[in-house]
Design brief:
Blueprint lengths: L1 H12 E7 L5 H5 L2 E10 L2 E6 L30 E6 L25 E4 L1 E7 L1 H10 L6 E3 L13 E6 L24 E6 L7 H4 L2 E11 L5 E4 L11 E4 L6 E8 L2 E3 L2 E2 L3 E5 H7 L1 H6 L22 H4 E6 L2 E9 L2 E4 L1 H4 L5 E5 L10 E8 L9 E5 L20 E6 L10 E13 L2 E7 L11 E4 L5 E4 L2 E4 L10 E8 L2 E9 L4 E9 L2 H14 L13 H7 L12
Antiparallel strand pairs: 1-2, 1-4, 2-3, 3-8, 4-5, 6-8, 7-14, 9-10, 9-12, 10-11, 11-16, 12-13, 13-16, 14-15, 17-18, 17-20, 18-19, 19-22, 20-21, 21-22, 23-24, 23-26, 24-25, 25-31, 26-30, 27-29, 28-29, 29-30, 30-31
Length: 559
């Protein structure tokens, strides 16, 4: 019941914003333009949404987004029609700290519509700076739809709408929290309306669950989450679950992220606190008093004191970089393809309590042969990693178990390791022994060699990494993977790419179980003899067939 009430609360705080030009104008023929929004206050009625929805109506065109100051209503074409849409009324639902007015149901039980006026379009400077910090121009990042011409200059702009129809006597502000309290791996719930006003009866205020994948900027002005959002959800809210009620922490800025031609599978959020700081002058001018942002005490997770982020390291070898997982103060696993280019090998552990950022040198102790199905390399460091906490590898693998992947994919060294969550979707076994794990975590290039951990126990499952190009499958697709699974579960060895269509599938991953890697590592630590890893080069044909995505040899079917 508590979960149901929480979900209802998020839906009640969100809405749909529609903008259309005057009748007969070219914009009206192409519109209405729409996006999601968040009802921040009912005293007075205020809605916050993404600013890009106003692009077709700017007097100066998209070039206006380059201005450093707020844009007032006279920056837009006159006689615009702004509407805020809510779900049908008639049923009282829990709200996010709002005293909702009882609004009569719309005719035929349809959506409630409220006329709105634009107060101002506001740029969020802290978010803009964080964008530049996290996403390098050389890496060809794009946000939003697939079209290359989508204007990225509006990403950090947001719109404040005054909605008299939402006014409520004694109405308050949405329960909210500062993004500065967020931690990687923490759960989030996103709420928005896919496809905007296209079919709100079906898609208004839908929910998606994910985790905080990465953070950047002043007081975490920029948040990345693996909650899956679709075009039209821009302007919707991201909520932090809490024991009493969900807390609004961020606004959806872009539903899709692209790195070159690769779909990253992450959603871009802007901190609500950063938007409020940037909007102080506009809200003061409108006579709006913003209550102080409530403080929040971060919950301390009971049980294991291990921090999976501390296991992940950045591995750089010449121009190649990837991820790795610490197994001992001077020993780590990564993928062969990360280190096979040769050259100086540098390892950067994740900074943490008692461990400052430092670059350590290392050398390859062992790397599997190219013919091996396992893309693995063992690296020994010249110095110990301070504050190392021993891993607790998994010994069983249960499909459906919640997992997390930690690695330096997508953003590289810019913001430290990223975290994505999913489930163990399948366990592939040969002769009763698990040899491959499949997960739904979003995995990207650069995650190779990183750890896969159990979301609940914190145990290591496997490690990530690109292994090799697999053979052509039954549907004519070539796939490439980059992940290995460590855990108490394993190391991610790969995600999947359809080379025919040029599509990457970050949520289909193949991982090496830690039960394959742990025994030779233990023998090497005990004896110092590199021959302990020889078994990784002598896998049977069944294992090789599994990693080539071929049917395992066996008796022909009688069907």
């Amino acid at each position: 019941l508590l979960r149901q009430n929480a979900a209802m609360a998020e839906e009640e705080a969100c809405c749909l914003v529609s903008v259309s030009g005057p009748s007969g104008s070219p914009q009206a023929n192409a519109g209405p333009w729409s996006c999601s929004g968040v009802i921040l206050s009912r005293g007075p009625g205020l809605v916050l949404c993404q600013g890009a929805v106003f692009t077709p109506f700017l007097r100066d065109g998209p070039a206006a987004w380059a201005q450093p100051c707020s844009l007032l209503p006279d920056a837009l074409q006159p006689c615009l029609r702004l509407l805020v849409l809510q779900p049908p009324a008639g049923i009282r639902r829990p709200t996010l700290g709002l005293n909702a007015a009882v609004v009569p149901p719309s005719p035929a039980g349809g959506l409630r519509q409220h006329k709105a006026q634009l107060l101002a379009l506001v740029p969020c400077g802290a978010f803009q700076q964080a964008l530049a910090q996290a996403f390098g121009q050389a890496e060809q990042w794009r946000f939003g739809g697939e079209a290359a011409e989508d204007d990225q200059r509006a990403l950090h702009w947001f719109a404040w709408l005054r909605v008299p129809g939402l006014d409520s006597a004694g109405g308050g502000w949405t329960a909210r929290a500062s993004a500065s309290c967020l931690h990687k791996g923490e759960g989030l719930l996103a709420c928005g309306s896919p496809f905007g006003a296209l079919c709100p009866d079906l898609f208004l205020n839908t929910l998606s669950r994910g985790v905080v994948s990465n953070l950047a900027g002043e007081e975490n002005a920029l948040v990345l989450t693996d909650a899956r959002c679709l075009p039209g959800t821009e302007g919707g809210g991201a909520f932090l679950p809490s024991p009493t009620r969900p807390l609004l922490v961020a606004i959806i800025a872009a539903s899709f992220c692209w790195k070159g031609a690769e779909w990253i599978g992450l959603t871009l959020l802007c901190s609500l606190a950063a938007i409020l700081r940037s909007s102080t002058g506009v809200l003061d001018e409108a006579g709006v008093v913003v209550p102080p942002m409530p403080g929040r005490v971060a919950a301390v997770q009971a049980g294991s004191r291990q921090d999976p982020l501390a296991w992940a390291v950045l591995v750089e070898c010449g121009a190649t970089w990837g991820s790795g997982v610490l197994l001992a103060p001077r020993l780590l696993l990564t993928c062969r393809h990360v280190v096979e280019a040769g050259g100086q090998l540098c390892v950067t552990p994740t900074p943490g309590p008692g461990r400052a950022a430092a670059v350590l040198k290392g050398h390859v102790v062992f790397a599997t042969e190219e013919s091996s199905p396992f893309d693995v390399a063992v690296v020994e460091l010249e110095e110990r990693v301070p504050g190392f906490a021993a891993l607790c590898p998994a010994d069983t693998f249960l499909p459906g178990k919640q997992l997390g992947v930690v690695g330096f994919g997508a953003l590289g060294r810019a913001c430290g390791p990223s975290v994505t969550a999913g489930v163990l979707s399948a366990v592939v076994a040969v002769s009763g022994r698990p040899v491959m794990l499949q997960t739904t975590c979003a995995v990207h290039g650069g995650s190779s060699g990183g750890p896969l951990v159990s979301s609940h126990s914190g145990r290591l499952l496997g490690k990530q990494g690109i292994s090799h190009r697999w053979g052509r499958g039954s549907h004519g697709t070539d796939t490439v993977t980059w992940a290995l699974l460590l855990s108490p579960q394993g190391i991610v060895a790969s995600n999947t790419r359809d080379t025919g269509a040029g599509a990457t599938y970050p949520h289909l991953n193949f991982c090496i179980p830690i039960t394959i890697l742990q025994p030779p590592v233990v023998r090497y630590c005990r004896t110092g003899n590199r021959s302990a890893f020889a078994e990784l080069n002598s896998a049977g044909e069944g294992v090789r067939a599994a990693w080539r995505l071929q049917r395992q040899p066996g008796h022909p079917s009688k069907l």
